[in-house]
Design brief:
- The complex is a heterodimer of chains A (710) and B (287).
- Chain A has two domains: 5-40, no CATH class; 42-270 and 285-316 and 376-487 and 532-709, Maltoporin, Chain A, CATH 2.40.170.
- Chain A contains eleven helices and 34 strands.
- In chain A, strand 6 and strand 7 (121-122) form a beta hairpin.
- Helix content of chain A is 11%, strand content 53%.
- With 710 residues, chain A is mostly beta strands.
- Helices cover 43% and strands 18% of the residues of chain B.
- Chain B has helices at residues 6-10, 32-48, 70-76, 90-98, 112-122, 139-150, 166-173, 191-203, 213-218, 228-245, 263-268, 276-285; strands spanning 24-29, 55-56, 64-68, 83-88, 103-107, 128-133, 154-159, 179-181, 208-209, 222-225, 252-253, 258-261.
- In chain B, helix 2 packs across helix 10 and helix 7 runs parallel beside helix 8 (191-203).
- Classes of the chains: A mainly beta (710), B alpha/beta (287).
């Protein structure tokens, strides 16, 4: 079609002003009451711009993993160890070091730290959280103390639970399988005009490692039974103000093995049993000051109580049998000998009967006519924390974002057994993280966390990250970060007192004359000399995160230097707390996700970590090569098939190789939904898990579950 | 005409055979200001297309009535003149067309297939597409299904009676999908439900595509839409065709469109492709 010059001119001249205001419907934007819900997007950090390596485990992965317990999900994280190391007690550690090490990583649930600094541990069994209530888990691989403070040492696990408004059903679920698996769950969600609440109660039990073998001459006992209650509620106070509350608790009973350190001179009549109780209450007020400015104030309190009870008879050191002479181990003279030997346990045991003072005391006991020295032992721990935190997130500009805040915390640890009383720790902190985007492809993240507490003094954890995003969806990052692991109350203030309970009346009432003191204690005691400094880590990282079509890949090259480590034994029998050791990790790890088809999801992780440590125990849990492979197949409407494979070479010289196969069917029946699930966990290796005693009778564990939602 | 729209194909109707004189046009509906700007822009487009500048006439004396919006369209149908509706609800346009009116229309709704293609372009890894419809928009599922099948996409469709069930069904749907395709449906996507939909989707990390500019302004990722300026071009093409061949195209979605992306949300979801011009060209090429 011919176009005239006049016509072209007309279009050129007329169109711009004529069409500029042609909005349809006319004046729609001006008259609209459409809310603007941009705060989450404005303040959210895209994964390409995160100053570190992050693994996100979302609901699709959680469901596909077939995991029964929370800790098992962490096997999907490259470089992470997540196994039951101590019978029924899980160890979860990123770039792990010691076998029972849960002290070098921070774990948060909805912003609440479940890391217990009194005894530097995370009690994974007792986290009151059902897997079904998890929205996603974000794992920062590498130190992130600049954002989270002390103890965000090797990494951070940040668990975000399902929003109460997203749980709209009542669900009753049950699971049963071999190895004594018996689980039940009840979840209820309610919502109203301006709020919602979710409540979950669970009970789970299993027999632990069930090879029925003997450990130190006693039958292996590591079954567990755990009950949890968890709730989360939200009330929208206004368009901009939200109040959330979180409350919950747990109760667990764990069978524990015989204490190896006692076996030289005791005979168990009742093996240890650990009872734990925990409860928390958390309140969070959030205010959207504007769509560029968000303020959050959070307060929480939590307390936990742990009690390990056991019954035993202390053996007569001369006859090696039960008798009143066993009381010699609880005598004043034995303690004096132990102190004289510089607290050398072996030397004291070897010279016990030869010492004149001890020998005299033994004669008193042996001739007293008292019954055998049988009694109970109780290890008690109570921990409390109160925490108040304010966090302000402000987008100063489209290219500048500042997250800053402050917190105060009070912690209390009590134990007659480990601390001979109560110790408190007060801390306060200031933190700020500045995200700059000076040029389109360049992001700079500058942050620091200043913290002071009574035990550790002042610490500052800085971080500098430079992220280059050559194209949207691709980020190359260079990160240097430091962090500290705080000295815990036990390391700093240990004063152990192993005292007998439930002594025969004839001994208890005459303790001063029979044992030399009225409040008898085991001759072994340990006392911290204090003066410890926080463990330090310096990490350097070169990483890449990118999305290409259906692929998502993250690669991390790292060099981590852990120094001033308190690596040696710290327990009531051997206490060698010194900032004497170091560990160096270097290597690479990668995670790769591929939505290869609408029904298929493939995910692969791999890690290679080369470790150099000043003491072997710090190398025990690090696998030089590890990885996982997960495939999810949404077969057809309601059917799901998934499988996962995990490999670690090696944990404590033992190969860990396991696969999971899951078949699930979800069926709507009117207003209700029925879900049936069958899971098999199969071990490919005959090797035990970390330690010799951790063995299963069968290579396969299986369970079936049913859940009804209405 | 697209092969995947059998209804439209069946309803194709020639309003007249041969060339038709379009010397007098009437534009009805909208606000006076909008109408004035629209008419000016349209005249310029028609002149640029080689048509003598048509006179603006009273509707009853015009050769073709351009009706802006549902109300004007329905009123214009009684004028016994050929009517081209612009920004007309699909249901109203098809109802009139099947009743045998001498009319055609370009719908006010964005083409759902184009919206889905937009979603694909922004989120290539998204293979499971969530779709919620009310009884008035249940046809969208049928429209999208062949395209989804061809592209190996899984369309997870939830049909709701109204928005009262959104709060319960949206959290159920989102975990099963990679993104939510929000369609033009005032029963479901309105000022009253935007907050619920957008906050729920943010929480579950599931982007929302569509349904319109206002929703993008509120917090959805992106949408394609036909602005007034786009509709000017669309109408000009139809008028030129009408003048040249004597018939109007059957009612359909407008294929002249603009894109609106929310840069904050695009960034938050790490969208790999954000050049709007390239995106527009990609979508236009596939039409």
């Amino acid at each position: 079609m011919r176009r005239s010059l006049l016509a072209t001119l007309a279009v050129t001249l007329v169109s711009p002003w004529a069409t500029a205001d042609l909005r349809w419907p006319p004046a729609a934007a001006e008259l609209s009451d459409m809310p603007v819900v941009l705060t989450p997007a404005r303040l959210r950090q895209p994964q390409t711009e995160v100053p570190g390596s992050v693994t996100v485990i979302d609901r699709a992965l959680i469901e596909a993993s077939g995991a029964r317990e929370l800790y098992q999900l962490m096997r999907l994280v490259p470089g992470m160890a997540a196994v039951n190391v101590d019978g029924n007690v899980p160890t979860v550690a990123y770039h792990p070091t010691q076998a029972r090490d849960t002290r070098r990583m921070l774990v948060l649930v909805d912003g609440r730290s479940v890391y217990q600094p009194g005894f530097a541990r995370v009690l994974w069994n007792d986290i009151p959280l059902a897997i079904a209530d998890i929205e996603r888990i974000e794992i920062s691989r590498g130190p992130n103390a600049a954002a989270y403070g002390a103890n965000a040492y090797t990494g951070i696990i940040n668990i975000i639970t399902r929003h109460p408004a997203d749980v709209t059903d009542t669900t009753v679920a049950a699971r049963a399988g071999n190895n004594g698996v018996r689980d039940v769950r009840l979840t209820d969600g309610r919502r109203w005009h301006s709020g919602a609440i979710r409540l979950t109660a669970t009970q789970r039990a299993d027999d632990g490692y069930d090879a029925r073998q003997s450990v130190f001459g006693y039958p292996q006992r590591d079954s567990k039974r755990i009950e949890t209650l968890d709730s989360r509620g939200i009330q929208h106070l206004s368009e901009r103000d939200t109040l959330e509350f979180f409350a919950g608790g747990s109760r667990s009973t764990l069978q524990r093995p015989a204490n190896e350190a006692l076996l030289d001179f005791v005979d168990y009549t009742e093996l240890p049993r650990e009872d734990n109780q925990a409860a928390f209450l958390q309140l969070r007020w959030s205010r959207e000051i504007s769509d560029r400015h968000h303020l959050r104030v959070q307060a929480y309190g939590q307390r936990s109580r742990s009690m390990t009870r056991q019954q035993l008879c202390t053996l007569d050191p001369v006859t090696g049998t039960r008798g009143p002479g066993g009381g010699i181990f609880y005598s004043r003279e034995a303690r004096e000998l132990y102190e004289a030997n510089g607290r050398d346990l072996a030397a004291t045991l070897a010279g016990l009967t030869a010492d004149p003072g001890v020998a005299g005391r033994y004669m008193v006991l042996a001739s007293s006519g008292a019954p055998a020295f049988c009694h109970g032992l109780r290890q008690d721990i109570r921990e409390q924390r109160a925490d108040l935190e304010i966090e302000d997130t402000l987008a100063l500009h489209d290219r500048v974002r500042l997250v800053s805040g402050a917190s105060i915390r009070h912690e209390r640890a009590s134990s007659q057994f480990f601390l001979r009383g109560t110790h408190e720790n007060h801390s306060h902190a200031l933190f700020a993280n500045l995200e700059l985007n000076p040029l389109d492809p360049l992001h700079i993240n500058l942050g620091g966390f200043y913290q002071h507490d009574d035990i550790n003094g002042t610490a500052f954890s800085p971080r500098l990250a430079i992220i280059w995003t050559p194209a949207p969806g691709h980020g190359v990052r260079l990160v240097r970060s430091e962090a500290v692991r705080s000295v815990d109350a036990y390391e700093d203030q240990a004063d152990t007192r192993v005292y007998p309970t439930r002594l025969p009346a004839a001994i208890r009432d005459n303790a001063a004359s029979l044992l030399g003191w009225s409040s008898p204690e085991l001759f072994v005691t340990q006392r911290s000399e204090g003066g410890l400094e926080p463990e330090r880590i310096l990490a350097r990282e070169l990483g890449y995160f990118g999305r290409i079509g259906q692929f998502e890949i993250d690669v991390r090259f790292f060099n981590e230097s852990l120094t001033r480590l308190i690596s040696r034994a710290v327990n009531p029998f051997v206490f060698e707390a010194r900032n004497a050791d170091r560990v160096d990790h270097r290597g690479w790890e990668a995670q790769w996700g591929w939505r290869l088809h609408r029904s298929h999801l493939l995910r692969v992780t791999a890690a290679r970590v080369l470790t150099d440590a000043s003491v072997r125990t710090e190398r025990r849990m690090i696998a030089r090569n590890s990885g996982s492979l997960l495939w999810r197949f949404d077969v057809a409407d309601g059917w799901l098939l998934s499988t996962a494979y995990y490999l670690a070479k090696d944990y404590n010289d033992f190969r860990y190789e396991q696969a999971t196969l899951q078949l699930a069917r979800r069926q709507r029946i009117g207003p209700t939904e029925l879900e049936l699930r069958a899971v098999i966990e199969h071990r490919f290796s005959d090797h035990p898990v970390v330690f010799q005693e951790n063995r299963h009778r069968d290579r396969s564990l299986y369970w079936l579950s049913a859940a009804l939602s209405f | 005409m697209r092969a995947d729209r059998p209804l439209v194909a069946i309803l194709l109707l020639c309003l007249a055979q041969g060339a038709a004189a379009v010397s007098r046009l009437a534009v009805v509906g909208g606000t006076e200001e909008f109408r004035t700007h629209f008419t000016s822009a349209l005249s310029a487009q028609l002149v640029a297309g080689g048509l003598p500048a048509p006179a603006i006439a009273a509707p009853r004396r015009s050769d073709l009535v351009l009706a802006l919006g549902d109300e004007a369209f329905q009123e214009a149908l009684h004028l016994n003149r050929p009517v081209l509706g612009l920004f007309i609800s699909r249901n109203i346009a098809l109802e009139a067309f099947t009743a045998g009116c001498a009319c055609s229309a370009f719908f006010s709704e964005a083409d759902p297939v184009r919206q889905l293609r937009l979603a694909q372009a922004l989120f290539p890894a998204a293979r499971r597409i969530g779709l919620i419809t009310s009884p008035e928009t249940s046809w969208v599922a049928g429209l999208l299904a062949p395209y989804a099948e061809r592209e190996s996409l899984l369309l997870v469709h939830t049909a709701l009676a109204d928005s009262n069930a959104l709060a319960r069904e949206l959290p159920r749907l989102l975990p099963q999908v990679d993104l939510l395709l929000a369609i033009s449906d005032e029963r479901l996507y309105s000022e009253a439900t935007a907050r619920l939909i957008l906050l729920t989707s943010y929480r579950q990390n599931k982007p929302v595509i569509g349904p319109d500019e206002l929703f993008v302004q509120a917090g959805s990722v992106a949408t394609s839409y036909s602005s007034g300026a786009d509709m000017v071009k669309q109408a000009a093409r139809a008028v030129l065709d009408f003048a040249e061949r004597g018939w109007l195209p059957p009612p359909d979605f407008a294929n002249v469109f603009s894109l609106r992306l929310n840069s904050h949300v695009v960034r938050a979801y790490d969208v790999p492709m954000v050049d709007p011009d390239a995106l527009q060209r990609q979508l236009e090429a596939g039409q």
